[in-house]
Write a sequence for this structure.
């Protein structure tokens, strides 16, 4: 493969004081929003000004870990979701500057994921109370309904980009549910043949049935959910796969894992193209930009890396006849190739710094330390076992009630 076809880091963003849990690009691809377990939200401007500076805005409002972020397709707002049982909607003005004040949507349980509809009039959220909830983005705290279908925590939910009435969700019950927002009910469900917590999913472009889902069992599955059929299966990572993102062309898939790597898959040929080792620790999140020219990765090392993908320049005729699941290239970029952006002047003695603006309307950073990832994982595992037990008891009670009803 030619050297210019290899992904390369364009910039490294430093600013969060704890793990970066999720990120998303604004529609223009010139801004990015990242969220962290330190409770902060950072809106990054990736375009340098005449002084070769970049700017960012740190938004402080959530009171606990922020698990998810989603940027609306029209660029007018973005959403953040937190363990503090709230969703916040942040508006973005015509100058592409976020408002320091947010609209708060209060929820009955921890919010694991959030996603806006293609028309930007609604959004959905995934919760620990086993539901997917629908909301109006045009009205303050306008709750619409809850969609039922899971029997454990729901980890992710996303609108289909080709059909705005469809939502797919996945969770700890090893299943993917497909909901129709017009009928407000589940219309399809796929359950894995082996037990595995599903953590994240992404739709194929221009598809209302194909999607990829990542799992805690270190695998990536691609389903045709309407046909209830497993299309592809990748067992490529050594630990939990925390996030997946499909390239806008539909030909490539990006993954991030707790094994400290991100991988790029060629979905047409069914194999790994690149293994990216640059983060120190778990890689929690990854995302292709809207045009696919760049992608971002972030994790427990508190930094966000922006990569130039170079995928569209890759010639498929140059690829070898490597078998399925064989790595094509193991890319470990050199540290001196990075163009670092220093977030805070106190972090360095150099004279060129990033322009930082803290947007803090009324909420200050929490004094309490966020629990470590290991402690959090223990609690999650314990709660998962309890939830499984409750689900089993509910099923037994339902069967007994039906038997009693038949006898009467």
């Amino acid at each position: 493969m030619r050297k210019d076809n290899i992904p390369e880091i364009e910039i490294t963003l430093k600013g969060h004081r704890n793990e970066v849990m999720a990120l998303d690009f604004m529609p223009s691809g010139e801004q990015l929003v990242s969220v962290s377990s330190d409770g902060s939200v950072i809106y990054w401007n990736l375009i340098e000004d005449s002084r070769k500076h970049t700017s960012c805005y740190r938004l402080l409002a959530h009171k606990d870990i922020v698990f998810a972020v989603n940027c609306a397709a029209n660029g007018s707002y973005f959403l953040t979701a937190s363990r503090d049982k709230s969703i916040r909607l942040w508006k973005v003005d015509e100058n592409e500057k976020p408002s320091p004040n947010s609209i708060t949507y209060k929820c009955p349980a921890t919010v694991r994921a959030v996603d806006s509809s293609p028309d930007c009039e609604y959004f959905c959220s995934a919760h620990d109370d086993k539901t997917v909830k629908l909301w109006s983005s045009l009205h303050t705290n306008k709750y619409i309904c809850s969609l039922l279908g899971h029997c454990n925590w729901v980890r992710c939910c996303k609108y289909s980009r080709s059909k705005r009435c469809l939502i797919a969700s996945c969770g700890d019950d090893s299943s993917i549910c497909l909901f129709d927002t017009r009928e407000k009910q589940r219309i399809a469900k796929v359950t894995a043949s082996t037990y595995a917590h599903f953590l994240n999913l992404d739709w194929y472009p221009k598809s209302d049935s194909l999607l990829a889902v990542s799992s805690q069992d270190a695998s990536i599955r691609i389903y045709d959910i309407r046909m209830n059929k497993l299309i592809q299966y990748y067992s490529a990572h050594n630990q939990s796969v925390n996030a997946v993102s499909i390239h806008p062309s539909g030909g490539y898939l990006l993954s991030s894992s707790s094994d400290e790597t991100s991988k790029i898959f060629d979905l047409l040929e069914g194999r790994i193209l690149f293994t990216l080792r640059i983060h120190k620790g778990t890689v929690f999140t990854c995302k292709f930009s809207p045009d696919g020219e760049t992608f971002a990765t972030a994790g427990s090392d508190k930094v966000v890396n922006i990569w130039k993908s170079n995928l569209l320049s890759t010639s498929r005729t140059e690829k070898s006849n490597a078998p399925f699941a064989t790595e094509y290239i193991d890319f470990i970029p050199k540290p001196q190739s990075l163009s670092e952006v220093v977030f805070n002047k106190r972090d360095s003695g150099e004279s060129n710094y990033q322009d930082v603006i803290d947007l803090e309307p009324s909420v200050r950073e929490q004094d309490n330390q966020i629990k470590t990832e290991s402690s959090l994982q223990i609690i999650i595992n314990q709660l998962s076992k309890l939830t499984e037990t409750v689900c089993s008891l509910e099923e037994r009670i339902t069967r007994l009630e039906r038997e009693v009803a038949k006898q009467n």
